[in-house]
Write a structure and sequence with these properties.
InterPro entries: PQQ_b-propeller_rpt, PQQ_rpt_dom, Quinoprotein_ADH-like_sf, WD40/YVTN_repeat-like_dom_sf. By secondary structure, this protein is mostly beta strands. The protein has two helices and 36 strands.
Length: 451
């Protein structure tokens, strides 16, 4: 064999040696990839497409233990300013548009404060109530002491502070303690308060095997107890010296078919029962076990202006609250979203009833014009925080993306990228939105179209 033929054969063999691993399955050991037991794609994945807005500024706030975060206040936005509790537990005021620090106040402050008429009222970790003007000027401080205060309410000319069963009233101008009381151990105090015509009403729950709401009325000047009513919720409204309150009917009237919401009417000053209203309906959609479903979509109500909305299971009914007649028919009725995971938010926004689906953290709206039910579940990942200002809905997702949508059209408006999966309630003052994520505040200028 001459050298030329030998060279040609060698070249062919060299080519075959490269090709064999790919095609000579009978000549080499078989190679196999492990197959998935289940493989499912999601063709409905939706990526939000919207302009990405860059924050104007960022500012770190105090870090609160997760067990206390839900009831803590670390930032407020009012009148073009942001009032933030810093990591060293001092209060700082910022220009909302620029993030520039305007002043600082205090030390060892608690994550609980509120704003009212140009003043900030808060408590220290030792239990001192303080007042500081919007300009940063100290006005007064008063020792309560409520070292674990749960709420602060500026009402009328007083500041009310709650802590469990305790309640204190302080003069808003001078800081002078007017009175302090504590209900007995049979009650657990809530933070719900309202004051009308010199009468302060607070919500409690009674301790025991079964827990029911109670309201107690006090003389706002002295703290003297005027009256209390068991099984009654915070007033729907107080008008012309009368208190309108829904009565809890559990264990009293549990007919699963012939249902009602009962509104009790009390004299504001004496607590004497003046009358009752019954909003009745028939529920033929009883559970298979014949049980009694109460609360939420199955027998609750709220007042919006003059309209009373009664959740009647399959239906939600609208009544004119100030034109009541016994066994009167509702003005309107709609089919409402029914699910064990859906709960009414007791609000009408943009002519829509609002519901919350806590199985997927989505908002459900029902148009009052035609009863259309729309789920606002959107985005690439579950929502961690949701806020509505005007007709814009803001959602912070579990992947750190923060989206804004038009509540009516559902159209994405913009996105802000954050560095955290954790979100707190958003704030807004003027055309500045404050996104709160991962212990930081991000100041975002809103587009002119949605301010």
């Amino acid at each position: 064999m001459n050298r030329l033929k030998l060279k040609q054969i060698t070249s062919v063999l060299a080519g075959i040696s490269v090709i064999l691993p790919l095609y000579a399955g009978d000549l080499l050991p078989a190679a196999s990839a492990e197959k998935a037991a289940v493989s499912i794609g999601n063709p409905f994945y939706t990526q939000v497409t919207a302009p990405v807005l860059k924050p104007l500024w960022s500012f770190s706030t105090a870090t609160i233990p997760s067990s206390l975060a839900a009831q803590s206040i670390t930032a407020l936005a009012e009148n073009g300013k942001v009032f933030a509790l810093q990591k060293n537990y001092t209060l700082a005021a910022l220009n909302a548009a620029t993030g520039k620090k305007l002043w600082e106040y205090g030390s060892a402050l608690a994550p609980l404060y509120t704003y009212s008429k140009g003043m900030i009222y808060g408590v220290t970790q030792a239990g001192t109530l303080y007042a500081v003007a919007e300009s940063g000027r100290k006005v007064w401080n008063t020792s309560l002491p409520f070292s674990n205060a749960s709420s602060i309410h500026p009402l009328g000319d007083k500041i009310y502070v709650t802590q469990g069963r305790q309640l204190a009233a302080v003069d808003a101008s001078t800081g002078k303690l007017k009175w302090k009381i504590a209900e007995d151990s049979n009650y657990e105090g809530y933070t719900d308060l309202t004051e009308v015509d010199g009468v302060l009403i607070r919500l409690y729950t009674s301790a025991g095997v079964l827990t029911f709401p109670s309201i107690i009325a006090y003389d706002s000047k002295t703290g003297k107890k005027l009256w209390e009513q068991y099984r009654q919720s915070m007033p729907l409204t107080i008008r012309d010296g009368l208190v309108y309150s829904i009565k809890s009917l559990e264990m009293l009237d549990e007919d699963p078919v012939n249902r009602k919401v009962l509104v009790s009417i009390f004299n504001l000053q004496t607590g004497q029962l003046q009358g009752e209203r019954n909003y009745r309906w028939t529920d033929n959609n009883t559970p298979p076990d014949g049980g009694f479903r109460s609360g939420g979509v199955y027998g609750s109500a709220f007042l919006d202006g003059s309209n009373l909305y009664v959740m009647q299971g399959q239906k939600v009914a609208q009544y004119n609250f100030w034109n009541y007649t016994e066994n009167g028919k509702p003005l309107k009725q709609w089919n409402q979203p029914l699910s064990d995971h859906v709960f009414p938010l007791y609000k009408v926004i943009q002519d829509r009833l609002m519901y919350y689906n806590y199985s997927d953290n989505s908002l459900i709206t029902m148009k009052l014009a035609n009863g259309q039910v729309i789920s606002t579940k959107q985005g690439e990942n579950p929502s961690v925080q949701m806020d509505i200002f005007g007709r814009t809905m803001y959602t912070g997702q579990s992947d750190g993306l923060y989206h804004a949508y038009d509540l009516i059209s559902q159209k994405p408006l913009f996105t802000v990228k954050t560095a955290s999966r954790e979100f707190q309630p958003s704030l807004k003052t003027g055309n500045i939105l404050i996104v709160r994520s991962g212990g930081k505040m991000l100041g975002v200028k809103l587009p002119a179209a949605i301010q």
